[in-house]
Amino acid sequence: MREITFLFGVHCHQPVGNFEYVLRDACRQAYRPFLECLERHPAVRTSLHYSGCLLEWFAANAPDLLDLIRSLVERGQVELISGGFYEPILPVIPRQDAIEQMVLLNRFLTDEFGVTPRGLWLPERVWEPTIPTLARAAGLEYTIVDDTHFLYAGLAPGEIHGHYTTEDEGAVLVVFPIDRQLRYLIPFRVPEETIRYLEGLAGREDVATITMADDGEKFGVWPGTADWVYGKGWLEKFFTLLEESADWLTMITFSESIDRETPRSQLYLPTASYEEMMGWALPAPAQGRYEQLLEELTAEGRDQADRTFIRGGFWRNFLSKYAESNTMHKKMLLVSRKVRELEEVCGRPRSEHQKPSAGRGSGRPREELCRALFEAKRHLLRGQCNCAYWHGVFGGLYLNHLRSAIFTELIRSEHLADRALRGKGPWVEVREVDFDADGQEELLVETGLLNLYLDPADGGTIFEFDYRPARFNLYDTLTRRPEAYHARVRGGGGSPEGGEAGDGGEEGESGEGRRSIHEEIALKEQGLAERLIYDRWRRTSLRNMFLPASTTFEEYAAGEFAEIGDFAGGAYHAAVDREEEGIRVILRRSANAAVGGDAAALSVEKVITVHPSRAALAVDFSVGQRGVASAMRFGVEFNLTLLAGDAGDRYYLFPAHDVTDRTLAGSGSLEEVGQFSVVDEYQGFCLSFGIDPPASVWRFPIETVSLSETGIERTYQGSALFLSWVVANGGGEIWRARLTQGIAPWPS
Description:
Layout: E1 4-12, H1 20-39, E2 46-50, H2 52-61, H3 63-74, E3 78-80, E4 82-83, H4 95-113, E5 119-121, H5 131-137, E6 142-146, H6 147-152, E7 164-168, E8 171-178, H7 180-185, H8 191-202, E9 209-215, H9 225-231, H10 234-244, E10 249-251, H11 254-260, H12 275-280, H13 284-299, H14 303-306, H15 317-321, H16 323-346, H17 365-382, H18 400-422, E11 428-433, E12 442-447, E13 450-455, E14 461-467, E15 472-473, H19 486-491, E16 543-548, H20 553-557, E17 573-579, E18 582-595, E19 598-610, E20 616-626, E21 632-640, E22 650-653, E23 668-680, E24 685-708, E25 711-727, E26 731-745
Parallel strand pairs: 1-2, 1-9, 1-10, 2-3, 4-5, 5-6, 6-8
Antiparallel strand pairs: 7-8, 11-12, 12-13, 13-14, 14-15, 16-21, 17-18, 18-19, 19-20, 20-26, 21-25, 22-23, 23-24, 24-25, 24-26
Helix pairs in contact: 1-3, 2-3, 16-17, 16-18, 17-18
């Protein structure tokens, strides 16, 4: 039989902020047994990539795994691939940060394993044409992407193998295409099926080298795979078959392939990722149609011939699809600029990564700045970990602990930079900038204790509220919006409710084996269809609205209410008063509305006051109603999160009311509330509200119905609080109210 070369790569990563038990389980179920099996099969040669996040965890919790990797490298069985240390989407972070991410992992691999890496693992295989200049600036020579990228460049499915070259600004990069069929065979079909597929390729005169590279979590972490891969011996059998095929199948590393073989051709790849990601990046209606079209092509047998002309979205679309993702991304860019400003003050080149020594002179101002710079940079880079910025079959953006971890890293980096540049005394600053790149200015109010980001164009709302001492964004909630997979929830599609993907049987769609998580989606509990509630506006805070006085709590919580006028989402005129004692932001909106057949003139003014030395803010409301004969309910909505809705150490305190369920997942309505608090014993702070005059307080949890690798599930995203008053001042007099919010350590 004609010989063929098989390049086998495995990528392993866990996101910044993931739960400790998840990493322990992944290590036990996948990372350790994979390496141990590889050690038993020295003829199986592979290229491995571990993100810096995971390598740091190994160093602290499983150092013997680093020893095992080192031994595999030293005996020439394994090549280590570099990448961004904290697994960022490289093209969407500042160029300096992208290069630093790669250089940081290069140095770790050199220091820990004694190697000089040549390859770049491209997170989520998100390719943009500037990748070659980034990679080569970090000293890397090749990367690995999907055959999807090559199809979009116009190549036919049968001619995508070997390796190619591309360039940007003359920087040449070698690119290996991943074979899609192998990605679906391994490890979900019996090993013999993969060997038969490779034999078929070996029988072709035009194929010399074929590549398979994919997630290491497929080998034990994905649902059902631990028992299949190790319990039932899939990996042991696969490696044995590879060794037994040595007379016609050669296994080498990617670097060896570059050194031995010539590129097939030079070409230019369009922006792309793997096929599934391209679908997830589309808006929900387009995603549904895209997936339907792919199914139709497959049913007609045209999926291979016509895939070149069918493509999904662009990774950056996630930033417009999800406003919350865009907020994180623009926060990251803001913090990167602050770190760069500190770096310029320090006078050190950005490529310098060495931690300052604690020797003589370390107390000098410049030395202190350099120490702050080192720490601020590391937290900034951690805050660029990609997982929380997008959503697909993996929870990502919908996992509140991952979003919170990103904000924690960015706030910590920002606080270090600000403190180094401004000193430890109180300060306050307000900036009018187009923060989110939507063409309209936002207001960023910053002190040494708080960040308050306001969007006058979206109802004069607050979309970020950072408590710096805890490095925590209290308003990091998520809007409930339609997703393409919600059609399956309504239609009852997927495996039986409460089951896991793959529980329906061992056989996948193309033969004996396990189902991939891309093939079946489980519904993890009953009644999810009834929980599909979509929000009219983004779940931000300080959103005002007028409602009919008869509106009930139940109607409001279900989103089944009528707004009078358009104050909730309308644009407010903004002005800023800078005073010695602090900042006043004045937001005003006036509009006409039809109320009970009458033409009413309504107006709202809200004045937000922030002091530099207090972790607090005050909001003064002035409401005008002219020509209104009947009473209306005027209210203000807050959406906040302490991450866990049903945890006993995070709860409401209503001192003048008897509340049975005080958890943040609790719901209900209270009257005449003049003050209450939200306590977080876990993080050690308390958010207190003062209300004058006392108001009705409606509270309920915000829960999304979202997809993760284990199925479609209900996820707590935050808690909604609607504070309202029934007002009747149709004669034109001004009705006023005052709210205060303060944050203090708990217990005080």
